């Protein structure tokens, strides 16, 4: 798999040098609010996570999200696929933009659009889905812009910040992706 280029972003392989930024982001309560992360993470935890990537199915390795800044690329987060079900041609998607100064600029929806293109036009999947906490309104809006539709709700499925919260299931089907591409 080579680097995936969008209009303003690119998705590339994660490198060991990225680990420092990831460590900073997975310890930022504002970033982890919408993620299934609960405990502080040490640099060693993060290095172990990186070392484990070499054993992963190449399709399920995370991708670094970079944006163009002048003539250079700037790392702002990561995203990827996991739990790819070959028989069902389905996969779950995840994303973290850890650089908060880059939130609300459309990079999240652009990264998810690139990942969807990869799901449907490279991996020949039929369904791409994700889970998102109901009160993560920024994420929900960003996913809607990328074409995800609400398909279900896991009631009170997580307990975070002192309360139970519903988890929303959102997905894009291959047919919906195809119609969207025709409209463009
Ligand atoms: C969730 C995340 C990927 C979204 O990426 P992003 O680049 O910030 O989002 P986008 O710019 O694509 O879209 C955000 C949208 O939400 C809107 N939004 C932001 N805060 C909002 C709020 N409080 N209420 C309603 N809409 C809101 C923005 O205005 C924008 O919509 P618009 O373009 O129609 O104006 C990113 O913020 C992130 O990684 N956050 C931390 C980790 C996380 O929560 N990951 C997702 C786990 S499911």
Characterization of the model:
- With 184 residues, the chain is an alpha+beta fold.
- It has one domain: Gcn5-related N-acetyltransferase (GNAT) (Aminopeptidase), CATH 3.40.630.
- The chain has helices at residues 19-25, 29-32, 43-53, 107-122, 137-146, 174-183; strands at 4-5, 9-13, 63-69, 72-85, 90-97, 127-133, 149-160, 163-173.
- It has an eight-stranded mixed beta sheet with strand order 1-2-3-4-5-6-8-7, sandwiched between helices.
- Strand 7 and strand 8 (163-173) form a beta hairpin.
- Helix 1 (19-25) crosses helix 3 and helix 4 crosses helix 5.
- The protein is globular, with a radius of gyration of 16 Å.
- The two termini are 25 Å apart.
- The mean pLDDT is 97.
- The protein binds coenzyme A.
In short:
With 184 residues, the chain is α+β, with helices and mostly antiparallel strands. It is built from six helices and eight strands. The mean pLDDT is 97.
């Amino acid at each position: 798999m080579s680097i995936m280029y969008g209009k303003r972003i690119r998705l590339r392989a994660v490198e060991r040098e990225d680990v420092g930024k990831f460590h900073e982001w997975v310890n930022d309560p504002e970033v982890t609010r919408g993620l299934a992360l609960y405990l502080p993470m040490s640099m060693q935890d993060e290095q172990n996570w990186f070392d484990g990537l070499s054993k992963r199915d190449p399709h399920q390795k995370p991708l670094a999200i970079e944006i163009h800044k002048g003539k250079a690329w700037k790392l702002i987060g990561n995203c990827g696929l996991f739990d790819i079900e070959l028989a069902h041609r389905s996969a779950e998607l995840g994303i973290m933009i850890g650089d908060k100064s880059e939130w609300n600029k459309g990079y999240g929806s652009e990264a998810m659009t690139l990942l969807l293109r990869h799901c449907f036009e490279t991996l020949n999947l039929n369904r791409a889905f994700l889970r998102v906490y109901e009160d993560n309104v920024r994420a929900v809006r960003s996913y809607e812009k990328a074409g995800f539709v609400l398909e279900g709700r896991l009631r009170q499925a997580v307990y975070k910040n002192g309360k139970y919260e519903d988890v929303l299931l959102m997905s894009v089907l291959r047919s919906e992706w195809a119609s969207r591409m025709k409209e463009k």
